[in-house]
Amino acid sequence: MTRPAGSVWRAGTIGLALALAPRAASAHLVETGLGPIYDGVAHFALSPEDYVPIAGAALLAGLRGKDHARLAVLILPLAWLVGGALGGLPGAPGLAVPLWLPFLAVGILVATDLQLPTAATGVLVGALGFILGYPNGLAIAQYGQGLRGVIGSTAAIFVLVTLVAALAAGTTVAWVRIAWRVLGSWIAASGLLLLGWALRAR
Questions:
Q1: What is the pTM assigned to this prediction?
Q2: Where are the domains positioned within the chain?
Q3: What is the pLDDT of residues 75-110, one digit of tens each?
Q4: What's the rounded Cα separation, in Å, for the pair 120 and 117?
């Protein structure tokens, strides 16, 4: 059994490593014609580099139990909102993470079914939400959508995290839990593929 203090420390280390791995921020904003809130929703829905790691984090929290799932539903969208709002401020510095890192980190944690205390789950999903939300805030600000665009994407994240975490937390059949872990391994494999492309591009 992993000691809670050690797990929190490791979760904090992973979150810090994610936050300190910058690259140039880039994003594609979708204009729906329905206003900035819907534009934010559409942008998130068409950004697998964002919703796949977030769905993986929700899956990780759900597999740990209902308390972890509830915490993820609260913290992950809130962290995204804070990151997006800060990224949208005038003069905010560029900050992002390599595309492969969230995929790889989240995928490995799901695939290994690592036992985490509730606090460690909170640290991980909070770090992930912030480091993915910040560059999105930068991009949305460049297109003049402002905070309303961030709110739209936050709403989409809340719905996604709630559904995935609740589905995983309700898993009682052993083979279904194994299937979730296999899905985590696919997320990690996608991260390895993205890492290979990044290394080849250098």
A1: 0.76
A2: 35-197
A3: 999 999 998 888 878 777 777 678 888 888 899 999
A4: 5
